[in-house]
Amino acid sequence: MDNINEPLFALGASELVLNEDGSMYHLNILPDEIADIILLVGDPARVARISQFFDSIDCIKSKREFVTHTGTYNGVRITAMSSGIGTENIDIVINELDALVNIDLKQRTVLNQKKSLKIIRLGTCGSLNPDIPVDSLLISEKAVGLDGLLHFYPEYKYTAAWASEFYDNFPYSVLKPFLYFAEASTNLISAFSDADFHGITATLPGFYAPQGRGLRTSTLDPDFLERLNNLGVINFEMETSAIYGLSTLLGHQCLTVNCVVANRRRQEFAADHYASERKMIEYVLQKVHLL
Questions:
Q1: Where are the alpha helices (DSSP H) in 85-239?
Q2: Averaged in consecutive runs of 10 residues, what is the pLDDT profile of the chain (291 residues)?
Q3: Rounded-to-integer distance, Cα 70 and Cα 93, Å
Q4: Nearest 5 degrees, angle CA 211-CA 182-CA 243?
C-alpha cells in the first residue's frame, strides 16, 4: 500500500521507543542483527529448534517473549524470531521489524528507500475440516481476523469478493464489527504450492471460548466450528490475520505455514506434536533458497 501518511519530522522518544543501546524497545535488536527472511514462531523455545539447523549463528538476543537467532542456512541469511501468542504481540513484532529496516533509528526519520522483508510464520493450528488430518501441512492463503486489530489502522483497506461474501454470510452480529480480511503474498504461496492443504484461516483472540472450547464456561455457539467451516475456513490460530494485514500495509511479503496438531471436528490431537513441528521446520528450510 502506498497511501501511508508517513511523518516528515523526527519521531519522538515516546513514539519510537528505543533501548539505551539504540535497539528496538521490545525486540532488543539492531538493524544489522536481522536478515531479510524472518521465520516467525509463537513459542520462544521453537526458535532454537529452528536455529539448530543453521550452519552458523551470528546473533542471539532475547527480551520477554521475543527471542531472536540470526544465522545462515545453506548460504542464506535467516532470522528465527518468536512473537509469543496473540495478535497484540504481532502488532509489536511487525511494527518493530519494519522500523528496523525502514526508519533511521539514530535520526528517528523514515527512510526514503524502503525495504521489503519476507516474513514466514511457522505455526501450529487446529483444523476445522474433518477431512484435514493431524500432522498435515497447511498454507494460509487468506485470513479472517476476528480480533479487531487492523481497525486501529485506518489506512488499511482490503476489498475482495470472497471477503464481502464472508462478511454477508457471517452469522454472529455481535462479532461482525471486529472482522477484517487479509491475504498472503502470492510469490510466497507459489513457493509452497506442494503443501498438503491451502485455504482460509481464521485468527481468533483467544484459545478457549473464541475457539469454541468450553471447560467450565459456555461458548458462543455449539455449532461455531461447523459454521466457520461452512464459510470456507479450514483452520484457525491466533496470529495470521495481523501478520498479513500489517505486512501488506507496510509493504512486506508474508505467509503462514501451519502444522495441524488438532482436528477439532474429530476431537483428535497429534500423538507427537514435536515431530509434526519438526516436519514443518524442515519443510520450510528446504524452501528458503526459493524465496
A1: 87-102, 161-169, 186-191, 224-230
A2: 72 96 98 98 98 98 97 97 98 98 96 97 96 96 98 96 97 97 97 97 96 94 95 97 98 98 93 95 94 87
A3: 16
A4: 75
Residues 81, 10 contacting (CB under 8 angstroms): no
* Strand boundaries in the chain, DSSP class E: 37-41, 56-63, 66-73, 76-82, 103-104, 109-110, 118-127, 137-145, 180-183, 197-203, 233-237, 253-263, 268-269
- Count the neighbouring beta carbons within 10 Å of the beta carbon of residue 104: 14
Q: Against a cut of 0.70, is the pTM above it?
A: yes
> What CATH number matches the domain at 31-290, 3.40.50.1460, 3.40.50.150, 3.40.50.1580, 3.30.70.100?
3.40.50.1580
Query: Which cell numbers hold the place of 101?
Result: 529496516
- Give the whole-angstrom CA distance, residue 29 versus residue 96: 9
How far apart, in whole angstroms, are the C-alpha atoms of residue 118 and residue 251? 10
What is the residue type of 3? N
d(CA 209, CA 193): 33
CB atoms within 10 A of CB 177: 8
